[in-house]
Design goal:
This protein is mostly helical. The chain has helices at 2-12, 15-50, 73-101, and strands at residues 61-62, 71-72, 109-110, 116-120, 152-155. A 3-stranded antiparallel sheet has the order 3-4-5, with no helix packed on it. It has a two-stranded antiparallel ribbon with strand order 1-2. The longest helix has 36 residues, at 15-50. It is elongated. Channel that opens in response to stretch forces in the membrane lipid bilayer. May participate in the regulation of osmotic pressure changes within the cell.
């Protein structure tokens, strides 16, 4: 039993479990906002365009005898709009998170043939040691460089 409790503590203390819980809570709150947007702004706009009287979406509801509501295409369109808004916001959040996560990494460059290019630090032509970008003199052998040191790119192997 003690082992089970310690395993549960380890599981719950993982960062991704807590991140997931926070994401679900924020997702629920955000869904309420999007639902309000569609119910209070987009649906009345659809009703205005289709000539509805405020209680139903004229032309988008097919009455079915023996049922209260019938076939409501307006509610279906609202659900689609709801989904698209939530999906777009989630996409933008994931994109921003990935950009933040990759912030320290250099983006790969490609040549005209589509081959990946690897960044090569500047090298002193005399002692073949790495020098700082923009240096005009090698810090290892003190030789004067013919031009300020620049990063070069070569195809990845």
């Amino acid at each position: 039993m003690k082992n089970l409790v310690s395993e549960f503590k380890e599981f719950i203390n993982r960062g991704n479990v807590i991140d997931m819980a926070v994401g679900i809570i924020i997702g629920g709150a955000f869904t309420a906002i999007v639902t309000s947007l569609t119910d209070n702004i987009i649906n009345p706009f659809i009703k205005l365009i289709t000539g509805g009287n405020g209680t139903d979406v004229a032309g988008l509801t097919i009455p079915v005898p023996g049922t209260e509501n019938g076939i409501d295409f307006g509610a279906f369109i609202s659900a689609i709009i709801n989904f698209l808004i939530v999906a777009w916001v989630v996409f933008m959040m994931v994109k921003a998170f990935n950009k933040m996560k990759d912030g320290g990494k250099k983006h790969l460059k490609r040549n005209k043939n589509g081959e990946e290019l690897v960044e090569q630090p500047p090298i002193c032509p005399f002692c073949l040691e790495e020098v700082n970008v923009g240096a005009t003199r090698c810090s290892h052998c003190a030789a004067e460089l013919p031009a300020p040191a620049e990063v070069t790119y070569k195809p990845a192997e």
